Every structure is written in C-alpha cells, then in structure tokens.
Amino acid sequence: MKSIPNKITRIILLPCVVWMLALFCSVPSVASEARCYMLKDSCAAATRSTDHRRALESATELYREADRLGNRYFTAYALYFQGVSNVILGNSAIGKSQLDKAFALADKAGDDTLRLSVYNGYGVYEANVNADYARAQQCFYKSLEYAVEIGDPMRQALVECNLAEIASIRRDITGLKYALNCYNWGVANGNDHISFAGAYHCANLYNIAGNYDMALKYIKEADSIGLRSGYAERAAVCNLYASIYAAMGHNEQALDWLREAERNSGGAQGATLSETYLAYARVLAALGRTAESERMVGRGLAMCDSLSIRSMVSPLLEQRALNLERLGDYRSALQVYKAYKQSCDSAYAERQQQSINEIRVQYDIDKREQEADMQRLMLQDERRRAAILMISLMSVCVILLVLWRHYRRQKRLYRRIVISNRESMAREQQLRDRLDELMSAAPAPAGEDERADERPAAHDDIFDRLTDIMERGAVYRDSGLTRERLAEMLGTNRTYLSQMIAAHTGKGYYQFVNSYRIKEAVKVLSDADNSDYPLKALAADLGFKSMSTFYKTFQETVGMTPSAYRDTARRL
C-alpha cells in the first residue's frame, strides 16, 4: 500500500523539479538577451549623437555578449554598428569587413531593416574612404528603396539626410529637397537627431547656392539643437559657420569659428578634422597668408593619409596648387593640379556615374516601369554616353586652358626678365660712358703718381684692381682661372682674396667669377646679332668647363635657361 503514494509523489515532483531547473537555467539567458537589447539601444543612441567612439565601445561589448549567446540577430547589429563607427573614425578596412559580415547575416535572416542599415553604411564608406560619391549615392538610393518598402519614415529621413550630404559634397543644390524633408520630419516628430542633420545640410546647401541669410538661419538652428542635445560633433557646425562667413568675405570671423572648431575637435571625426584644415587653408590664403595656408594643407593631407580619407584629398590638392601658383612655383603647381584632376576624373568614377544616373531616374520616375520599357533605357544610355563624352571633352579643354595660361604666364615672365636685363645693361653703359667723360675731363692732381707709389696696397685698392681685371681684362674667360692664379695677379694670397670678395660682395670665389660669366652671357644672348652663336661655344668662351654647369648657373641666376632667354630675346 505504501508503494502507491511513493509512485504518485515521483510522478508529481519529477516534472516540477525539471521545470524549476529549466526556469533557473533560462534566467541568465533572458537577462543576457535584455542586456543585448540595452546595448543595441546604446549603440543607436551614440550613433545618433555622433559619438562614434562610444558607439564602437558599446558595439564591441554587444558583439561579445551576442557571441556568447550564439545570437545571430545581435551579432549582425553589433557588426553593423562596429563597421559604421570604424569607417567614420578612419579604420576603413576593418569597418568595411564588419559591414560585409553584417550584410551576409542580414541576407541569411532576410532582415530588410538590417539590409537598409548596411547599405547606408556602405554609402558612408564609399563617400568617406573612396571619395566615390556616385557609388555612395547608389548605396543610399538602395537603402532608401528598402526604407520605402518596409514603411519606415524615420529611416527614410535618415537616408535622405545622407543623400543631402552627398549633394553638399558634389555641390548639387538639388539635394536641398532631401535636406528640407529631413528637417521638417524631424521637427514634426520631435526627433532632435534628424532635425539637427536636416538643419545642418540645409545650411550647407543654402551656402553653396549663395543664399547666406538662409544658410546662417539653418546653421544657428542646427547649433542650437546640437548644444541642447549634447552632440559630440560640434566641430562640423563650427566648420560650416566658418565656410559661410568666408563666403560672405568675413574672413576674420571665419578664423574665429575655425579656432572654435579646433577647441571642439576632441570628439570630431577624421573627415571633420581634414575639413577644418581645408577651411583654414582657404581662409588663410584669402587673407594673403599663403605659407600658413600651405602648412594647413600639409596637415590635412597627412590626416587623410593616416586615416585613409579620400574624400578631402581632391580639394586639398586644389588648394595646394593655388598656393604654389601664388608663391610663383608654377612647375610644382602644375604637377599638383594634374594629381588633383586625376583624383577627380578617374575612369572608375565615370563608370559609377553612369550607374547612379540610371538609378536616380528609376527612383524618381517609376521603378516598376523601368524594367518593362527597354527602349527608354537604351535612349537614356545613349544620353549618358553623350553627357560623359561632353564632360570628358570639357575636362580636356579645361586642362589645355590651364596649361595654355601657364605657358602664357611663363612667356610674359621671360619677356619681363629679358627687357629688364636690356634696360639694366643700357643704364650701366650710360653710367660707364658718363664716368669715362668725367675721368677724362678731370685734371690729375699734382704729385699723385709719386704718392701712389708710396701708398700701401689697401683692401679697397686690391678689390678695385680685381674688378678692373675682371671687367676690362675679362680674365674670367679663362677656364683654367684658379683662386691661386687670380691672387698672384693681384699680388696677394688666396685666403686674403676670398675674404676680400666675401666682404665686398657676400659671395664665394666661384659665385663671384661666375657672376661675370653670366653677365657676359646675358649681354651676348640679348644681342640679336649673336642669335647664331652656339651655346656650347659661348659656354666654352666664357670659361665654363661643362654645358651642365653653364645651364645650371644661368638658370639659378637669371630665372630661365640660356636657350629660352635667347628665343625670347629674338622675338622682342
């Protein structure tokens, strides 16, 4: 009889024990999942406030927690937030790899919301790292398609914000509609992050359009929202303030805002810091402080190189070319300008431009109609080819125009050098003739010859005799003329001769002798009657031992080569 109650007890208690054990084991799992949701929200909040360092820390922690749980959903989102943060902070290779892994997981799970986010991250990568704005725009349009498809207006506004940013970079004011949509939705829904982004891009695009009153209105609104909400990226706002004031011609105010940007650079993105350097360079150049501007360009390019930020390389190279041109280094300016054009007009960017034009037409007109109407697509392709051909021809024309302008400037400079030398030689000859007249007219003082014999050879007397044998005796024409021989002619030693030349002219021995040779070369080449005089013979006659030394010395002294000087003199 006792065995029946024991059996009943086992039947009742065993399931209870199993259930309690399962519940006990599931408590840590539920707690870990709740922590993952909390970390995911923290990543999203940090990303919205542009605090990407904090977002990266939270995403790394989320990844570890999700990996411990084996939860692919949270792993995918952790990789996405890590990827975007790393791309923006300059760790582009790592960020791209993380975005690729997040997209693969989103594809497996069929998660369109995550696909939307990853495509948005790809757009950020293409814009910040590759400076391929056409490809970035394509990614953002793909993200926008997903946002419309799943009916998510908030994410649609976020993507439109990125499209407005790309339009700002490309200086395409048609992107203003995306910025206004973003700002209006953020204000209507009380979303400070989207309101801030929309106001910032409205200000940027109004500044590009030249409407500075509206630009100041929206940047003040963006700054107010950013300060109220505690956004980390205030340096970008200060940069835009500086850009607007610089465009208005208020360069001192622009410098004040750039200093404010530096003070707020602690939480700034790498791209923002390079933008600060570019803005500094442009404002300093406008103020005539070209050397300081060039230092800022150097810092900006170093920042782009260290963080693999390609988006700012082209405008920095453009500013460097302008600086070098202002400094008179036209050869270097031309080389930098070529590098700038190559970064802007690569074949890869042209191919991507074709693709983005097609996607834009498909999105703005009717996506479903595009696949059915192949004839319209073929016509669009032809128009694109014609447009690309026209852009290519215009680019070539611009390059040729720049080269032609440089050539004309160089020729004008050469003309001024030759004319200046001719005038200088004419004045010198007049002075010599006048001096000879005065010397011949003046009576010799009595007893001068006797006193001259008694007077010791003073420092100035030796230098006068030196200039006399150089100018009248033309001893510099002797290629074997050495310091010792010249000192012997003057009755002194080589050390005293060098000291005397340095004291009177500030030159060394060879510089002093070569100055007479170059002066004679300029005189010969300036005379049209000597147009057939071979340069090799001229160099030998003047005492140069090699043509290379003659060319180098002439170029350094006169500012152009002997052949260029003679050709210019012929045309005058």
Describe the structure concisely for a colleague:
The protein is mainly alpha-helical.
Describe this structure in words.
With 572 residues, this protein is mainly alpha-helical. It contains 27 helices and no strands. The chain is elongated, with a radius of gyration of 38 Å.
Helix content: over 70%
Major sheet = none
C-alpha geometry: elongated
User: Helix count, per DSSP?
Assistant: 27
| Total number of strands | 0
Give the topology string: H per helix, E per strand. HHHHHHHHHHHHHHHHHHHHHHHHHHH
Question: What is the distance, rounded to the nearest whole angstrom, between the alpha carbons of the first and last residues?
Answer: 135 Å
Strand content: under 5%
Blueprint (SSEs and pairs):
Elements: H1 3-48, H2 52-69, H3 72-89, H4 92-109, H5 112-130, H6 133-150, H7 153-169, H8 176-188, H9 192-209, H10 212-229, H11 234-247, H12 251-263, H13 270-286, H14 290-307, H15 313-326, H16 330-344, H17 347-364, H18 367-372, H19 374-441, H20 448-454, H21 459-471, H22 483-490, H23 494-505, H24 509-526, H25 535-541, H26 547-558, H27 562-571
Helix pairs in contact: 1-2, 1-3, 2-3, 3-4, 3-5, 4-5, 5-6, 5-7, 6-7, 6-17, 7-8, 7-9, 8-9, 9-10, 9-11, 10-11, 11-12, 11-13, 12-13, 13-14, 13-15, 14-15, 15-16, 16-19, 17-19, 19-27, 22-23, 24-26, 24-27
